[in-house]
Amino acid sequence: AQKVTQAQTEISVVEKEDVTLDCVYETRDTTYYLFWYKQPPSGELVFLIRRNSFDEQNEISGRYSWNFQKSTSSFNFTITASQVVDSAVYFCALSEAAGTALIFGKGTTLSVSS
Amino acid sequence: KAGVTQTPRYLIKTRGQQVTLSCSPISGHRSVSWYQQTPGQGLQFLFEYFSETQRNKGNFPGRFSGRQFSNSRSEMNVSTLELGDSALYLCASRAGGGAQTEAFFGQGTRLTVV
Predict the structure, then answer these.
(1) Per-residue confidence at B1, pLDDT binned at 50, 70, 90?
(2) Which residues of A touch B (CB under 8 A)?
(3) Are A44 and A63 in contact (CB under 8 A)?
(4) What one-character DSSP code corresponds to residue B95?
(5) Helix H or strand E encompassing B14
(6) A82, A28 in Cβ contact below 8 A?
(7) Would the pLDDT of B2 be above 80?
(8) Contact B100, A52 (CB under 8 A)
(9) Which residue on chain B is closest to A51 by alpha carbon?
């Protein structure tokens, strides 16, 4: 069965600190997709990144970077030089090729103070 | 381009009543999915509609139902409301039908059952 685990429930950092959010997934499929979403207090989930199981290249987008390692079934998310506006709940999600449902982790609440 | 629109934003209902939530996807998107978010269970997939057909269904009782219209707008209905149905209900739209396409979420409908 598929499962996503975000072991960190809450993380608090001070502005300009780097922070890494962990995500570990389980699936029996060889083709699957991994996502990260951000949920600000307003409620909507904001798409950040998608990765497919055949692409283990790490990705960097501005202050955000993602490390995908199939060997450890992990898809970690790093924010460099965090800012107060990064404060939100971050969700990692998995989607298998055969289905379209997103399986979410429980989320990590990130609080960045000034 | 307008995002995903969900109405109403807030609802208060009494136990035993029924409720209908509405979701207008991004123009041109044919897939609409519904998710329930609660503090205890997190984000859980309810169902997905594609071109007016239910394509995928999560593990929820039959009190939860939905439909999709020819213009891709979707409604979700919950009958015989229970206190445990209090949650944020999120709708997501996708351009294509595959698991690899990113889902764009609305701001949700906050349902409170008293």
Answers:
(1) low
(2) 32-33, 35, 37, 42-47, 50, 52, 91, 93, 95-107
(3) no
(4) S
(5) none
(6) no
(7) no
(8) yes
(9) B100
